[in-house]
Amino acid sequence: MNTASLNDLTRARAEDRPVLLTGGAVVTMDPAVPDLPSGDVLLIGSQIAAVGADLRSDPAHAADAAAALVIDTRGAIVSPGFVDTHRHSWQAQLRRSIPDVTDLGAYVMSTLAGTAPAYTPHDMYIGTRLAALSALDAGITTLLDFSHNSRTSAHSDAAIHALLDTGIRGVHASMAPHFGAWDGQWPADVERLMSRFHGANDGLVTLRLAALSTDEIAGDHIAYGPALAAVARDLGVWTSIDAVFGTASSAAILRWAQQGILDPTLTLIHATGLAPEAWTAMGDAGVTVSLAPTSDAQIGLETAVPAVDEALAAGIRPGLSIDVEVALANDMFTQMRTLHAIQRMRAVNSGYGSAAPTRSRISTRDVLDFATLQGAKANGLGDVTGSLTPGKQADLLIVRADDINNMPLNDAVGTLVLGADARNIDTVLVAGRPRKWAGSLVGEDLGTLHREVAASRDDILRRVAAR
Ligand SMILES: [Zn+2]
After folding, report:
1. Is residue 192 part of a domain?
2. Distance from residue 391's CA to the centre of ligand 1 (Å)
3. Residue 146 Cα, ligand 1 centroid: separation in angstroms?
4. Where do the TM regions start and end (predicted)?
5. Burial class, 58, CB count within 10 angstroms (exposed 0-12 / middle 13-18 / buried 19+)
6. Is 346 in the same domain as 413?
7. I need a surface site. Which of 145, 243, 276, 344 has the fewest CB within 10 A?
């Protein structure tokens, strides 16, 4: 496939030379920019400059295309990177530690009450860095890190530094810890974090507030309401709200609407088992929604069914998210396939032997839209990333379609959603910078990473046992 080297690309970027990806199947996920069975994507600096069937013979782009470093993408799919709208990245060195978790309470007690208080700032850095690198490896170019173990300012700084050091497009969503000793610095400290880190790394890292929907899990200090809404408004940031499910959250949503604090700056996460009136209020307010299909189903959050029908009926196209690696897979392929299978099962089952209205049998393109563009919108980055749109940042993937599990290529969207996995991701660019190349993360020594991760995990467990 590709004949340009990483050195070629690095040099081209240093010299401000355009880069032309040519010959691949192009999936744009922008309704206004048609997909191409074989086409070109022109990059200039950090941006996508043009998408077209043959840019070298397009007068508007011929000069740049002729001067460009050419990357041959024949045999591959060129697509936007995936967007994760909610992951608790700090937990990554505990990944799959509770694979058979029985319910939400068991997760809360084992992880949030059990291990979280034993984290040092260094552990926050190691876990968040591991999560971000794994995300990049699996083609996730934008990660919203719902960082809810901010025991001290140093914990927050460490988590943000991890995002900065990996070169991912990161949204640090800051929340206080649920349980255990902490400095009480949140939410006041978010102002300092904003002035220090918002827009850092050439705009790659942004910040927002994080909260829970009610006081049911860990008390009032982290429940969204007028006080936190005022903090967010003063700072000019968006807010991601986790644990949105069931009767109590439905009541909270209606209360927020009355208080005037249910608005487009909110992302509501999970949204399972909500009352119809709550969905109507959400649609009217223009909030974004993050579905966590594996987490809803496996941990059993309220109805445990991802709320696709409810969201679409309210006029909301949701983003997708990974949530907790302690019990779940960490790639977007799993989320897309899980959601696709569950929803089609639900749609067929709802009509089976009954006269009930048939639910929406969503398509592979719907699911890919949720995993890219809609996620970008939920992360407040809809104008920046999530689709191959000229003027947006060059956050994109080159996915090998001639690997054993994908050959021969018949349908690019179907292949991305139903066929591909992380091993097929040859190249990952974030703002045009190579973060994965020829199937390997750029500039990362996995041996060192493994030693650091294992040492942090061991230290955490030792501190937990000593308590
Ligand atoms: Zn969560």
Report:
1. yes
2. 32
3. 7
4. none
5. middle
6. no
7. 276
